[in-house]
């Protein structure tokens, strides 16, 4: 579990492991020696951390945080776009509201075209669409927040891309 590995307890466990482990084992873990006979978890976590913290862009920025920032920014923009589409739909339906209309009225836009326009929408349908729009906004906000938390906790660069695809 990524959260447990990099939690305060996980870090304290690694500090205790460093204090109790021989220098040769520490050297093998830190040099990513494939012939290591013990400490596989530490070997894996060290490799993961080293890959996440690799310097990029003229050796000024760490790869993981830069990638996380880009993915997080893209995710938030995607969710804001979804919320904007929900808002536009609800507002456009509300603008076509007609209290006098007992039913939905459609009109043909062009005589020989299959296009039509919604001219009047009754009150009950508008109320239903507003209710569903609020539900969709609640789901989108929940996804945006929890998805962002998931992205921020991801420490494998490949998992970061896969999580982004899964969230999309």
TrEMBL record:
Keywords annotated in UniProt: Membrane, Transmembrane, Transmembrane helix
Q: Where are the transmembrane segments?
A: 70-95, 126-152
**Does the keyword field hold Membrane?**
yes
Q: What is this protein called?
A: Uncharacterized protein
């Amino acid at each position: 579990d990524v959260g447990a590995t990099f939690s305060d307890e996980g870090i304290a466990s690694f500090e205790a492991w460093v204090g109790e482990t021989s220098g040769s084992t520490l050297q093998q873990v830190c040099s990513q020696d494939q012939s290591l006979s013990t400490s596989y978890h530490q070997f894996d976590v060290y490799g993961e951390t080293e890959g996440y913290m690799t310097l990029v862009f003229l050796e000024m920025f760490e790869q993981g945080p830069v990638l996380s920032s880009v993915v997080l920014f893209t995710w938030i923009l995607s969710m804001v776009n979804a919320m904007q589409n929900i808002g536009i739909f609800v507002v456009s339906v509300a603008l076509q509201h007609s209290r006098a209309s007992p039913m939905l009225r459609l009109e043909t836009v062009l005589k020989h075209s299959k296009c039509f326009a919604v001219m009047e929408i009754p009150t009950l349908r508008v109320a239903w669409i507003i209710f569903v729009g609020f539900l969709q906004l609640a789901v989108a906000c929940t996804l945006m927040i929890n998805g962002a938390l998931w992205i921020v906790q991801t420490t494998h660069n490949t998992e970061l891309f896969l999580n982004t695809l899964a969230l999309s």
